[in-house]
């Protein structure tokens, strides 16, 4: 078998494969023998039809099948002979195929880029020093109480923090607009669910009152036709409810959180906050490290790998948007590939770089850490053993968990020997995502 490889440009490769006529003839002959043994031809017993009759009826199809089989089987052999590793499936075209002549086909594909890592000794990251403060603990305890809140109807006027039920009908210069009308809507005053003028305008009114509120829409409001305009809302207030939170030492509240005292609940809150802080710091280090690894090592990415990553990103987006049951073709229209192209390119680039770090530093997956990661993940559920059994029964889930652990090992390897800066930071600052960069 003769193999020739060409590089038209970039990561593109074109491989021409020529298979000797003798091998082709032998493959066709073997296929005809298989057909002859099972062919049912009128006037002949199975397997007894003359060779000439078999060739007349099955020769062309046997040759097509034999050629297809030869191409499929010889392709990996040709790759090995050429010493290339394709990234993705090839485009194969048979360019010469005649009885008694060599079989020739051309395979077009992309290859993985050659990567020479650089800049690993110049990584600059920060590991914030974050102390859990009383405000952090109080905020978490208040959130826990709010999860168990009760709403109690009151006869007084509405105040900030109350939950009210109301009808509203909005108009601008006497004209109604889309989304400006609702019946029996609920509003928590001060939550920011509605525009500030709307929430503040309800304060001081009692259930049963009807009144009008002027509401100014901001200049950057999502509905373009309402930007910068002032609307009039006719309001009918049906009910005012006061939010009542359980006391920290209320037995039912403590029992719901698996403790028997307010002090124990506070200690549990501190432990949870420390775990959240430590996880956020690890994620911050990981993001900084991988972003700088990518910035220092631009990679030419095979388009085939990007095309393979896009459906995965689309599936993740569909899951977040509860679109899992939308047919694939419809989903592709709703979430076109262009939306995910940049993210797919970054994810593939990082995957290639991480793979090179693993190879060059001979990093092996720490199975003990995988087991620990599974324990931590399952610990967030009421029945951790069932969760662990579920993961262990699904290889793809365990593979994903292993990939996450291996990525953490890569980050640790890259950070080994570096001295991160340690800026002081509050927990709130640590957990607040950075604002998007201005365009």
How would you concisely characterize the structure shown here?
The protein has helices at residues 21-38, 51-82, 134-147, 196-202, 251-256, 262-296, 303-320, 328-334, 341-361, 367-378, 384-392, 395-415, 427-431, and strands at 2-9, 12-19, 91-96, 103-110, 150-153, 163-172, 175-188, 210-216, 230-244.
What attributes does this structure have?
about 450 residues; alpha+beta; five-stranded antiparallel β-sheet; four-stranded antiparallel β-sheet; 9 strands
Termini gap: 56 Å
User: Helices and strands: which structural class?
Assistant: alpha+beta
Oligomeric nature of the chains: single chain
For the sheet with most strands, the description reads: 5 strands, antiparallel
Low-pLDDT sequence parts: none
Q: Summarize the amount of helix as a percent range.
A: 40-55%
> Based on DSSP secondary structure assignment, what is the total number of beta strands?
9
Principal-axis shape equals: elongated
Compressed to H and E, one letter per element, the order equals EEHHEEHEEEHEEHHHHHHHHH
| Radius of gyration, taken over Cα atoms and rounded to an integer in Å | 34 Å
Average per-residue pLDDT, rounded, comes to 92
User: In percent terms, what proportion of residues is strand?
Assistant: 15-25%
Tally of separate helices:
13
